[in-house]
Amino acid sequence: MATVRINPLDDPPDFSIVLGGPLFQLLRRAHLEGDHLELLYRRLVFFVGITWLPLFLLATVGPFAGSAGRLAFLRDIEVHARFLVALPAFIVAELLVHLRMLPVARRFVERRIILSEDLPRFYRAVESAFRLRNSIPLELGLFAAVYTFGLWFWHSRFGIEAATWYSMPGGRWHLTPAGAWYVFVSIPILQFMLLRWYVRFFIWYRFLWQVSRITLDLIPTHPDRTGGLGFLGGLSYTFGPVLFGQGAMLAGLIASNVLYHGGKLLSFKLQAGSFVVFFVGVIFGPLLMFTAQMARARRKGLAEYGLLAQRYVADFRERWIVGRGASSEELLGTGDIQSLADLGNSYTVVQEMRIVPFGLRDVSRLAAATAAPMVPLLLLVWSPEEVIMRVMKVVF
Questions:
Q1: Which member of 122, 263, 307, 341 has the greatest number of CB atoms within 10 A?
Q2: 208 in a structural domain
Q3: How many Å apart are CA 202 and CA 198, to the nearest integer?
């Protein structure tokens, strides 16, 4: 894909970290994706059709189907969580993130957060993100990684203790036909899609870092209480489907361990909690790069509005209290009282300005999306009524 050249005199471009790359072009030519990520249902059917459906057919039809002592395919919760929940979530996330990120560059420019003299530098950051997003060597490197490191990781970590639907006794590579498809097709596709999202995270973080190096014109009295950068916090929980998919993979792993390997659900609570905290931190952590400028804008705003307030209240006191001793009737019809109240409200807004471009609601939404796939695991310990009551106690 050709590099997009942006003229600072042009309108701000649409911004997307997902609309590009070799796989995007390949899916377009195969009529599985439109120019703006349309045809979502086709992609979902296609990827489930080449990852989960062959496993189902090979594991339930033929000489290796239903053998005694094997973990049946339909009972393998981990596999279904990967290819029927996590993989579709990664695909759906592409469209959601694309649509929500389109106006990012325009918001920086239209809100005049980027000053005119810094527009060339800002647009260079946008171009740099596009070049990395469209990189052919980068995606080829991911493809190579899943068939080298990915296979090595599977071989070294997943020991075969008993016969399953995908393997037979005799070693890790003593695979059934379903297992061969699972190891060499299904798992690499899932790993590739997940690594591709990690690369997109990196592109987003790199773009944020480059923008945070520019001197931003932040307004401390902006109603979003973040100097005008509140839209960045709203964008961050757009990554919720990606974390939901990873949460589903972890939930499948835990459920499989509890049901078939004798594990205790409560023994995974630290692991699950750490997972949620870590990935919420991964998404919101990069926004802390704007903290220095936001704190500087807040301090400057408090100083400026403090000086203005001092002058105004001094004049107000001199005019209406000390100098004339005005009665309440004389104050009626004047705008001085309302102006005093407005000034107080403005100063309060500056005081309440956060030094991070996100709020507790943004964090809680993303945390809920990440933890949601693990809620059904509670049914392994409590009844549905007990689960509902415990969740309600946490929420309310």
A1: 122
A2: yes
A3: 6
Would you say 343 and 214 are in contact if contact means Cβ atoms under 8 Å apart?
no
How far is residue 343 CA from its own chain's centroid?
A: 38
Does residue 1 lie within any of the structural domains? no
pLDDT tens digit sequence for 318-344: 776 776 555 555 555 566 667 777 777
CA-wise closest residue to 295 among 387, 193, 220: 220
Does residue 367 sit within a domain?
yes
Question: In 74-118, where does DSSP find H-type helix?
Answer: 77-80, 87-101, 104-110
101 is a domain residue:
yes
For residue 5, what are the contacts with CB-CB under 8 A and spacing of at least 6? 127
Q: Identify whether residues 168 and 244 lie together within a single domain.
A: yes
Angstrom distance (rounded) from CA 7 to CA 123: 8
Domain that holds residue 317: 296-351
3-state helix, strand, coil in the chain (%, to 5): 70, 0, 30
CA distance 26 to 4: 19
User: Residue length, the chain?
Assistant: 396
Nearest to 355 by CA among 189, 212, 226: 226
Give per-residue pLDDT as tens, 128-167.
Answer: 999 999 999 999 999 999 998 888 776 665 555 567 788 7
Tell me the residue type at 324: R
Residue 114, classed as helix, strand or coil, is strand
